[in-house]
Amino acid sequence: MAIRRHLLIAAQSERDKIAPAIASTPFMPLEDAGPWCWTLASAFSESHENLRDMALKANAPFLLFTTFDGDGWHVSANGCDCNVTEATHVFEKDWAEGNKGAIKRVGNLVALITSVATATDAKALEETLSGRAVTNAESDSDLGDLPRVLHVLGAVGIVDIPQDASARRLRPNQPARTLTLLKGHENRARSVISGVSIPVEFAGDLAALALYCDPDAILSLIADGAGLPKINLDIPCKISVKDEAIYVEADGGIGLKANVIRRAAEQLALAAGVEELTIVSGRSRGGKDVGWHRYAGRVVKGQWSIEEATPAVDGAQLRAALDLIAQHRTTNPIACESESEATAVVKRCEKSLYLEPKQTPKQKGASLTTHKDARFYVIMEIFRIRFAKTWDASAAQKAEESEQRKWDRLEETLLRAAEAFGLRNAK
């Protein structure tokens, strides 16, 4: 099968109904595959919708698959009750293990397909559609999991499953990105910490610390132990389970990554089986390794003791940074060390890439008040001022300032254009 193909399958008992209904379509003559009859057509010769409508004239159950560009496939199912249901299966989205949206979509696909293939092993089909039964060769192929879906349905012989040496694919069920981060930390300096601990549910504070140094760093939370809970998040992330450990990998915008780690930590805090936690991040910016952070330690009675830290840092400094970051969970005015620090923070927030003008904090002496959605970023500016000698965020700040200048220039260009066309009064 090529990248874009229509595949129609129906029970052999329905052959005499299906054949005349599709006789005038680009479909090839029907062939047999186990308990099914099947046929192919190019997706460039006719649309999925037109072929579906022609097949419906048979008044017989069928499944019509249409593949697209190696990214997934669309399916129409005319069930035994002759009601048509449809779904689109996108590999990257539906293979995201632990994601609530993916779990729901896969469940809907299983119900849709088994409405026609009633004798199918629903569990085996779910294992395939969720990506857990898919090998590296399959995930790299144009058809993804479709050949294995057909085999689960008993339609053997239409297309072979690609074979490779790996029993399972690396993405997303094994933490390939986390393993790469850990390897990158092997020769980096670290310090032994004592006397610094936080509740497991607040582990996201250390993710915030890493992101304050480099918002573009990728992050992973690793939980080791026996009887770990299943993590379910309805936001983009990758969750893996390997060797009695859970790996939660976050990428994307700074707010999304912080939210992923925070919510995963809150779910882990509800379980008694967590024995050790690690937060690891990494990415080089402008030749500086500002994004490489690692914090690890044992968990006892819900408290995470940070016993190792990269970059190397004094325990008292780490404690002070965590106390500052913890203020994002409260609604109280944010406490600065001095009035001059508060003033400097306001000036930075006025030019922040992450804040709208209306979100600039209000200063009263050494304290700041701001909207709850802005607290995370206001505290970031305090952190960067107060701990500049401990954690270097200068490369990230320069990149943000450059990005802000681009937006300012774009805004100025648009305003001038509006004035030129009389859409805005000239100053």
Commentary on this structure:
With 427 residues, the protein is an alpha+beta fold. The protein folds into three domains: 5-153, no CATH class; 176-328, no CATH class; 332-392. 36% of the residues lie in helices and 22% in strands. The chain has helices spanning 15-21, 48-56, 91-94, 100-114, 122-129, 136-140, 146-153, 176-184, 204-213, 254-268, 315-325, 339-350, 375-386, 394-420, and strands at residues 5-11, 31-33, 36-42, 62-68, 72-78, 84-90, 191-192, 197-199, 218-225, 238-241, 245-250, 274-282, 293-300, 303-305, 308-310, 334-335, 362-364, 367-369. Strands 7, 8, 9, 10, 11, 12, 13, 14 and 15 form a nine-stranded antiparallel sheet that branches. It has a six-stranded antiparallel sheet with strand order 2-3-1-4-5-6, with helices on both faces. The longest helix is centred in the last third of the chain and has 27 residues, at 394-420. The protein is elongated, with a radius of gyration of 28 Å. It starts with a strand and ends in a 7-residue tail after the last helix. The model is unreliable at 165-172 (pLDDT under 50).
